[in-house]
Amino acid sequence: MSRSKYGGQTRMSSRKRRPVDPLHQATGQERRLQAACERELGKLLAFGLIVDWEHRPDRAPGRGERGGRPDLTIGVGPGVVIACELKTATGVVTPKQAAWLVCWGERGCVCRSLGEFLSFVGRWAG
Q1: How far is the C-alpha of 37 from the C-alpha of 114, rounded, in Å?
Q2: How many helices (H) and strands (E) are present in the chain, helices listed first?
């Protein structure tokens, strides 16, 4: 137990935070790229150029989480889904990520900038 600033006692949380695996945590630069891509996807969705999209947040493996899945999955039309792994200029694709991207074939890519991302999505969208 500890004291609050108002003099009363507060309960300490019994929940422990899961440790974050630094290999699976997005850097500040990657987070900014993700946010920029998500803003553009919101615009594409609003204009009806894509069906929908999903961002898989970075999480440490465990509790049913399996690594390697691409960051963004984008439905661009009937029967057409593309996948994009976002990395910084110096980011490294893990072996599991590379294996998933091979499964996606030409509909999967690694994007290191907003321009690369928009070019890739534009190739498939609307």
Answers
A1: 6
A2: 3, 6
- Break the chain down into helix, strand, coil percent, rounded to 5: 35, 20, 40
Structure tokens at 73: 């999955």
Domain count along the chain: 1
pTM: 0.74
Q: What single-letter amino acid sits at 11?
A: R
CATH code of the domain containing 101:
3.40.1350.10
The whole-angstrom separation of Cα 101 and Cα 117 is: 15
79-111: burial string, b at 16+ Cβ within 10 Å, e else: eebbbbbbbbeebeeeeebeebbeebeebbbbb
The answer to whether 74 touches 84, Cβ cutoff 8 Å, is yes
Q: What is the pLDDT of residues 1-28, one digit of tens each?
A: 545 455 555 554 455 544 444 444 456 7
Where in the sequence is the domain holding 114, given as residue range(s)? 2-124
Tokens in use for 28?
Answer: 């500040």
pLDDT by residue (tens digit) across 45-80? Answer: 999 999 999 988 766 566 666 778 899 999 999 999
